[in-house]
From TrEMBL:
Catalytically driven reaction(s): a quinone + NADH + 5 H(+)(in) = a quinol + NAD(+) + 4 H(+)(out)
Alphabetically ordered keywords of this record: 2Fe-2S, Iron, Iron-sulfur, Metal-binding
Record SUPFAM superfamilies: Thioredoxin-like (SSF52833)
Any one GO molecular function term: 2 iron, 2 sulfur cluster binding
Metal-binding keyword on record: yes
CDD domains from the UniProt entry: TRX_Fd_NuoE (cd03064)
Positions contributing to [2Fe-2S] cluster binding: 83, 88, 124, 128
Cofactor binding summary note: Binds 1 [2Fe-2S] cluster.
Cofactor requirements of the protein: [2Fe-2S] cluster
Family listed: Belongs to the complex I 24 kDa subunit family.
Record keyword Metal-binding present: yes
Official protein name in the record: NADH-quinone oxidoreductase subunit E
Taxonomic lineage of the native organism: Bacteria, Pseudomonadati, Pseudomonadota, Betaproteobacteria, Burkholderiales
Matching Pfam families: 2Fe-2S_thioredx (PF01257)
Amino acid sequence: MLLSEQAYQKIDRELAKFPADQRQSAIMAALAIAQEEKGWLPTDIIEDVAKYIGVPPIAVQEVATFYNMFDVAPVGTHKIAVCTNLPCALRDGERAGDYLKRKLGVDYRETTADGRFTLIEGECMGACGDSPVVIVNNKHMCVRMTEQKLDALIDTLKGESA
């Protein structure tokens, strides 16, 4: 077993929500639990989750690679997803992304040399009217992100990872 006992207990709670013949329904929750603990989802963790749930590893791999909230490669301490879908792109989403690229010195799907930040393009975050929108570490949504607000966000995150 590659995860902590607490992680498997959390997965067990997710599995209990579904009938025994629908264990695959817990894949997303199990991956989120594993990623929270490990920081990303290497192949051995994906295979371990599949074995634990009792589904083929390819079923878990497909979910892990389809949704951009799951990381199948190492990421920085802080993953910043910028919505660049059309509504956000038209309302400065692309400008916010370009600003972060310059500020952090990375392109999308890259991590800063110090390992603090990974920048990605995110899919629709459901807040088109509040664009530009970013989500930090799949949990914290930030809206109407001006350059000043992006600067403040980066400064805050730098303080957290110092």
